[in-house]
Amino acid sequence: xxxxxxxxxxxxxxxxxxxxxxxxxxxxxxxxxxxxxxxxxxxxxxxxxxxxxxxxxxxxxxxxxxxxxxxxxxxxxxxxxxxxxxxxxxxxxxxxxxxxxxxxxxxxxxxxxxxxxxxxxxxxxxxxxxxxxxxxxxxxxxxxxxxxxxxxxxxxxxxxxxxxxxxxxxxxxxxxxxxxxxxxxxxxxxxxxxxxxxxxxxxxxxxxxxxxxxxxxxxxxxxxxxxxxxxxxxxxxxxxxxxxxxxxxxxxxxxxxxxxxxxxxxxxxxxxxxxxxxxxxxxxxxxxxxxxxxxxxxxxxxxxxxxxxxxxxxxxxxxxxxxxxxxxxxxxxxxxxxxxxxxxxxxxxxxxxxxxxxxxxxxxxxxxxxxxxxxxxxxxxxxxxxxxxxxxxxxxxxxxxxxxxxxxxxxxxxxxxxxxxxxxxxxxxxxxxxxxxxxxxxxxxxxxxxxxxxxxxxxxxxxxx
Length: 465
Description:
Low-confidence stretches: 348-355, 431-447, 457-465
Shape: globular
Distance between the termini: 47 Å
Number of strands: 13
Radius of gyration: 22 Å
Oligomer: single chain
């Protein structure tokens, strides 16, 4: 990016509002977003004007420009109050993304307010990412146990050979089970949280009401855990910042649930896809026993968040070939940036190790996922992928990769389903019961909670909307 402290845009220079913009979310984008990114890059350079559900924004396509936007918090703000179109009342009141952006939580804060919230989250999450702590041991055991139970359920229903959707029958229920465990959700709140969260993540015309319902559920969970604290993330957030109100804590739980289910869940599913479709670099790292590297390579090829949440220019600034005016919204595209990086790394000038360490799956800069969250998320992804590889002796796609249905929204590009023909190992029975393990005295209620949550998930996934 070219940032000149005293430079000003030319008086007759085009503004975002004056440019003709093509809608980003089209049938072409659903089928092949990479081709759309490349066409925009050819036409405009590393920054392009696009229409996002009827609202013009700058889409940042170049890796250099994306990382600059992510790392320069003083120039590129996260607080929605910087958005000029919103301040001037030019956003449609029913714009589908507005409800989510107006949830006042850590992701949309800046400066000291943001740093204080990050410290709270890091303190609360640290015990769960530390394998030596009781909480860390327990959450790791739970992830593996839930994965085994889901595979056991598949064996009970379809046998040791058959067909499965690894999204609906493995990845998504696994992450929702982990969320319920980590947040300390009582059984009576489980069904409501599952239903509201899935509807919220689907987006669309009902995204506003879905967001309100989910926030209400998480606020009630906050109140419940304030009255009955336990060894869970909700209680530890309160311990780290006792001044949090139930509403504030509910908003932070909302953000964590979105990240845990959408980002971490898509990273699991995308890693499985890259393995199954035969991505050579992913398979090489897997063959070498480097599961963490396998996840990194899959995140580079197919990032869980394609186009990141908006930043807002604090002042007029030149970015790429365009002038971004103060208050304009820019969306850094991790998918487009990775596309450019992969093209560069395929040349003889750049080694593959450079690109694999440069993926933006967890973000970058001051607003990247806190280190404790990255460690915890990485553990969940590695465990979920590892247990799949342990149990499935064979799995092959039942659709060509270019015919898989994608959920191509304004932020996330995730698979709607991942259909496979599978064979399970001889050790998988109709119920994959793990060997008995010592349970800490403070743990309890896990089995009944798992059964209740699985029942709610199955009702939802097979017509319970």
